[in-house]
Amino acid sequence: MSLIExxxxxxxxxxxxxxxxxxxxxxxxxxxxxxxxIDMSYSVDRTKLxxxxxxxxxxxxxxxxxxxxxxxxxxxxxxxxxxxxxxxLKRNGLDLKKxxxxxxxxxxxxxxxxxxxxxxxxxxxxxxxxxYDIAYLLKCFTGEALPESQSRFAKAVARILGxxxxxxxxxxxxxxxxxxxxxxxxxxELGLNRVGIAHHAGSDSELTARVFSKMANICHNVEExxxxxxxxxxxxxxxxxxxxxxxxxxxxxIGLYRPPPPPSPFPMxxxxxxxxxxxxxxxxxxxxxxx
Length: 291
Hints:
Blueprint (H helix, E strand, L loop, with lengths): L1 H7 L4 E7 L13 H14 L4 E7 L5 E8 L12 H9 L4 H7 L3 H13 L5 E4 L3 H12 L7 H11 L2 E4 H5 L11 H7 L11 H18 L20 H6 L40 E4 L3
Parallel strand pairs: 1-4, 3-6, 4-5
Antiparallel strand pairs: 1-2, 2-3
């Protein structure tokens, strides 16, 4: 934890990803947003996080470090799970038996991380298609069941996490991109290659960080996408948004598919790979209690 604390002194962006036991309910493609939230809450409240990836980076796109944290709480022989999702994780290289034996406890980790984050201001969280990722973070930080409605969830996330960006929602608001793309496809569109293995939280968070940095470098008006989460009807209204857009209704419904507003000045994030920026290799991943 001391490494993360040190890294946060110079890096105020956190890209994150989670691996979890899957969805317990099948949600219809035609379901309304509130039903999707109810089904997500049902799954998140009843399952346990398996893996968390954190990549810390600065406003110039320089990565300070990537951590892949494995949690010992999930027991595939006892706990609720989606068996198809479990088999998918295993096929992609997650050894759930070793994670169970050598991982660390969720409660202790998030208690320590929350204390560290309280000492740090202006954190920006970045995820991809992140409704479940955000929900697990909220659950783990608070130790409570998710709020009963999507609007209350959005307010709770704003209070606990603050500023949030979802790359899938961002991609749907800029010409030349599409929210139909997965993370890997979006990275390829931007000329970026993955480090590590797909569907491992550390690798996914690291790629998320670089995709965000590249998009912020080439797209105008990126700050206008803050708080929009793909599939959510309510924008996560951080204090930063409230200061920037004081007249905005706190319950403003997302307009993911309408044209973006006219450009306004925004400090662009510089390209990550400058002439003196070292290439990150697999050995730079940090794993806590991993094997």
